Amino acid sequence: MEETLEAMNKTYRRFLAFGMGFLLVAFGMMIVQPLGREPSLILAAILFVIAFIPLEFARRIARKMAMLALRGE
After folding, report:
1. Would you say residue 73 has pLDDT above 70?
2. Angle 24-28-32 (CA atoms, 0-180°, nearest 5)?
3. In whole angstroms, what is the distance from residue 13 CA to residue 8 CA?
């Protein structure tokens, strides 16, 4: 069980970092607006949508890890 939790933790952290990185880039695009006002906001909105995909995977992995740890298998 320990090996499974370690592997899931590694995957969880990877998905979480990837999603948070996309959110950080999206916020940066909104604040700095390197492409102009409208294109930067459109790109930031698209990045927000893309960022929630790995964050959702991370949430699901965290739930599975919690269930596995509580069951003690």
Report:
1. no
2. 175
3. 9
